[in-house]
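Much of what follows relies on a compact textual record of a protein's fold. A complete example follows; check for yourself that the lines match position by position.
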Amino acid sequence: MVTVKDAIDALQKVVDPEIGSNIVDIGLIYDISIKNGKDIRVVLTMTSPMCPLTSIIMADAQLRLEAIDGVGNVELELVWQPPWSPEMMDESLRYTS
């Protein structure tokens, strides 16, 4: 049985090369749901609609989720609302001045 924690653990291995941190800590994951104990649906965003690495990040997320033992279908939904902002990042990643 696949869990949300399994999905989070997998997604924490997906690193945004421009920022150098994983997409969970950056705050790009908006929702994770599991259906039938095996199908994963992830709603996520990018830091900008103009992000040149979107396809690379999405492909890496897809592959890592598909590698979870017992996983069925994996669906990634890329959304732009609400727009991402630095406040969504894990506090340890935010820069303060």
Q: What stands out?
A: DSSP finds three helices and five strands in the chain.
